[in-house]
Structures are given as structure tokens and as C-alpha cells.
Amino acid sequence: MNCLFQKKVRVSRGFAKWKENFSLDDTAVSKAFLMVRSISSETYVRSFQFKILNDITFTNHRLAKIGYAQNGLCTFWGVESETLYHLFYECSLTSQIWNDFASFWFLVSGKRVDLTLQDVLLGLQIRCRSKFVEFLHYTC
Predict the structure, then answer these.
(1) Cβ atoms of 102 and 88 closer than 8 Å
(2) Residue 82: CB atoms within 10 Å
(3) Structure pTM?
(4) Residue 21 has pLDDT above 80, yes or no
(5) Per residue in 91-120, is it b (16+ CB within 10 Å) or e — as a string?
């Protein structure tokens, strides 16, 4: 039985990526992974967030690398490389969506929210405890 515990526990590629890219500790990243189950009962939403968290979302950039797309450029504008960061935060189209959400949130709550790349990909739970905010984040 002791040799079972001596084996290295392998951390998922996504877990390590978020921890390194956003300088987070294990607890903060774990919360993002655990939050998926408490936010939505919709299988599609859970599945999609699982793919994002585990870094298995196939963008044009990744599809081009494996030969399934002619180029790795943005689906919307065709100028920038379509990475996960670009698609969900840096693209002018998605950036406008997050700005509109921030305006909506201000109208509803009277509070300003400046969404970061971390907020968009991992959720607002790291900085905000409101279940309603977390729910809105994952359904927008």
C-alpha cells in the first residue's frame, strides 16, 4: 500500500498553466476547477469550462498546428493568431462583449467590474464571492 502513495501525482497541463500564467497558488486554481460543478447544471457549460480549464480547447491556432485548419488566424477578423487568450479576451469582438457586460453589471449592481483575462477564463470567484456574479460569468 505504501508504494501507491509514493507514485508521483500528475497535475493536469491546464492546472499547471493557470498556476504559472496567473501566479496563483494551488488553492486558487483548485477553486476554479471545483466551481464548475456548483455554477451550472448544464452539461454543455460544464463540459466547455472543463475544456478551457484543462487546456484542451481547440482554437484555430491549435487546429493549424495539427493540420486541421489552413491557418491559425482569428475566426472573426483573420488578422491575429486565434489562441485561447485572443479568442476569449484580446479579440476586439470579445473585448466589446466584456465591456458591454461590465456596463450591464454597473447598471444592475451599481458596482464597476474590470474583467481581466484571469476573470474571463477562470471565473470571478478568485476575487469575488457573489454566486450571482459567478453564474453570470459562466453563462455570458
Answers:
(1) no
(2) 25
(3) 0.74
(4) yes
(5) beebeeebeebeeebeeeeeeebebeebbb
